[in-house]
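WP5 quarterly update. Target: Anti-bacteriophage protein A/HamA C-terminal domain-containing protein. Source organism: Sphingopyxis granuli. Length: 320 aa.
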Amino acid sequence: MGGHLSQLTETDLLSILTGNPEALDVHLTLVERDISIDGHKVKVHCHCLTVDGNGRVQPQRLAEFMRNAVVDYAIPRSKVADAKLRDQKFNSTEAIAELVERAKRSFTDLAKTGEGGEMLLFLLAERFLQLPQILCKMDLKTDSRMHYHGADGVYAGVTSSGILKLYWGESKVYKSADSAIHDCLASLAPFLIEPEHEGAGRERDLMLLSDKADLTDPVLTDALRRYFDRSSVLSTRVQYCGIALVGFDAPFYPADNVQAVADEIVAASLDALTGWRAKIGARLLAEKLSDMEIQLFCIPLPSAEGFRSAFLKSMGLKSE
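Structure tokens (predicted):
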């Protein structure tokens, strides 16, 4: 693509999405989507873990699926495109293999890491909601054992009228649903409701977006970055939204070596949704987020700790 692009369209953003959406269904079963809560602009989406043909729930398989998308998540799109071109030129996979190792090294081996939740949020944002990641935070880390300070990802959509919807990401995977919902929405709130000023929590990420946002194609990238240029009229056409993921222990998964019944897990998730919705609604009210558009994923798990351990194992990292 050449020339100059005045503003982005929905088609532009859809063209950069990564991965096969149907692969999600192998590991996650949709319980219900687009659940509304009266008085709020949130949309809640609930997935539980898929039961395989042997009646087993396989968190390790989910973790391995996540690991296989590590380059899409952790490496800027333009660098992936350059590596693919190099490999094509030399009939090799060397450049992509190098990016795989580089991507894996950017993750921390800390036992309490939240990076598995952040990566699952990425996969659901891109493959379920079709909202592409536009800022690759893992590439900004200077130390693999440190967490990047800022949103857990930045995603984007475009309305038919040309408004850029900027989705600030936040994820929490805890043992308790109450704690995950509380901390996730408390962490997300400053990005959405703080007044515009140089000390705002979102300011560093906005500066990074003006310099580091990456849509692969230079013309698309230039068009996106102008939304974050304060001297451009496009900077007035940005709407702040939220995208969040809460994962937590759920009692309705069977114990080890007990066969699971998929329909029973889905039914139990549906029953529990009433309580989760009430907790989400109360927290949105407390954080003054009722008027903000938020896409929120509820992921009941057999064990939050087990999910974290499976992710660290699949990445070849040892937990402490």
